[in-house]
Amino acid sequence: MCGIIGCVSDVDVVEVLIDGLKNMEYRGYDSAGFGVHDGNTIRVCKGVGRVDEIVRSLDLKSFSGKIGLAHTRWATHGGVTPENAHPHLSCNEEVAVVHNGIIENYQALKASLEAKGHRFRSTTDTEVIPHLIEEKLKAGKNHRDAVLDAVRELKGSYAFLVLFRDLGDRLYGVRKDAPLIIGLSERGNFLASDVLAFLKHTNKAVFLENLEVTEVKRDSYIIWNFEGEEVQRSVSTLVWESMTVSKKEFTHYTLKEIHEQRETIALALRQDSDDLDRFCLALQGADRIYIIGAGTSYHAGLVAKHLFLNLAKLPVEVILASEFEDYVTLIDEGTLLLAISQSGETADVLSAVNIAEKRGASVLSIVNTPSSTLARMSEQTLYLNCGPEVGVAATKTFTAQLAVIYCIASRLSNLSIDLIKITKAVEEVFGVERQMAYLAQAFSTSKDCYFIGRGINYPIALEGALKLKEIAYVHAEGLAAGELKHGTLALISEGVPVIALNPRDKTYHDTLSNVAEIKARGGRVIGISDVENSLYDYYVKIPSVGKLFYPLVEVIPLQMFAYYSALERGQNPDYPRNLAKSVTVK
Length: 586
Ligand code: AGP
Description:
Blueprint: E1 3-9, H1 14-24, E2 31-37, E3 42-48, H2 51-57, E4 67-73, E5 88-89, E6 95-103, H3 106-115, H4 128-138, H5 143-153, E7 156-164, E8 170-176, E9 181-185, E10 188-192, E11 204-207, E12 212-217, E13 221-225, E14 230-231, E15 236-237, H6 253-269, H7 273-285, E16 288-293, H8 295-312, E17 316-320, E18 335-341, H9 347-358, E19 362-367, H10 373-377, E20 380-383, H11 396-412, H12 419-429, H13 433-442, E21 448-453, H14 458-472, E22 475-480, E23 497-501, H15 508-520, E24 524-529, E25 538-541, H16 550-568
Parallel strand pairs: 16-17, 16-18, 18-19, 19-20, 21-22, 21-23, 23-24, 24-25
Antiparallel strand pairs: 1-4, 1-10, 2-3, 2-4, 5-6, 6-7, 7-8, 8-12, 9-10, 9-11, 11-15, 12-13, 13-14
Helix pairs in contact: 3-4, 4-5, 6-11, 6-12, 6-16, 7-11, 8-11, 8-14, 13-16, 14-16
Bound molecules: 2-deoxy-2-amino glucitol-6-phosphate.
């Protein structure tokens, strides 16, 4: 969840760290901090708020040095306070650490360190790391062994960086169940939890595997396993090197990414034919298939279930990644796990994949981030090809996931994909943007909002509700339209907004009956459809796109509605409170 970056260079690293941190801010953004070695001491600057605010208020620009580390935080242990921001220092300020993850046994370690006289300045789990390393140094260990020895006592999932005051030419990095990547450039080397942190400077990267430690200098690096044996890892060339992480002319990343769908859906629909064939062969050869994902990726899985079942008679079960453990006894060599994830780093997803692999199942994935842990753990991966997504709310990656799923479904059945028709329809749906902004204003004081849809439209109702909750902080529920009368209808009263996903497919007439039931109770219905009906208080026209492809065009107005609702309610849609883009803790 947190973002970490370190850099060893032959030029000043402060601007590089600030920039790298901003590019990772989407991972977590309640506080941030920097530690820079000025040739003599490690100077630390940290505080609560966004990176820009901290840089401005704490005079970071007066810092200079050729080696440093930085951190953007999403609080897990310890409140959002300046003291709890990283880096954390050891008592004698010889050791500085930035950390992403959780140290599960920190309470026991802290108690034992305090008994030895260590004084803690924060209430985080992280702070045990620098104190523990200091203890190892005091016991006579060299720097590398102090790190390795400390690591052997830590339980949990983590990646962290260590900067020593008396070693101003190198950083140490440790990886266990959280990503850590070395970036190699002409002017120096990086260590970061995300390639976006250094992509501007280099496309050459080395991915640490689990249970590895690295020592990174300006022009070299060494990797060891936790036993201290040296290991070799090859250098990868990153495929996102040419993509800039900028908002372009848009006010927010979220809006930019919504608009990018004009191109990204078509890009994701262009899957390599051989890759698709291999992927489908594996699906067809499995005894049973589980699709797993979290949040938006789970919703994409629900669409996949509908298509695979209805088109290819391929039954699959879709499971929330965080609930997968319940299925462990059913997993064996005949099982295929299809993991869907934008980031490829979601802890719940990786944990399910680990369970499945241990029981001999095959793992396939649909992923956006090419170099992610999930992609590297999978036997086969289909990529979304839609570039980095920075807005915390998944938008373009959801429709790209759907596009890849359509490609798979079309290989498994006789579904034909008319790329030109879809591209035109997606372009056309952008015509409703002003109307969605108007509707967001019209309902800007509503406390609740309901989304209904049947069949393949049901997961889109869930997705519309998730978007509105996460970026506009409006209580929202997505429902299978037929379920409304089984309870939730009791909540529909005068003026309550209900968004009905009701395209001209086989669900049309039944959903219209549900709309009538809502109207009879005073609900205000926004009908999203290619057919107008007088029951709708507001009609949002979407193009006719062929009955199975409606999800692609009906979700875009919902994304716009959530985006403009966030603006109406004074929220920054790119950085919703309490959330992080990549959820790397369980
Ligand atoms: C989507 O808008 C959310 N930010 C969130 O639900 C997200 O989809 C979920 O955390 C899964 O992430 P992943 O696709 O990177 O695994």
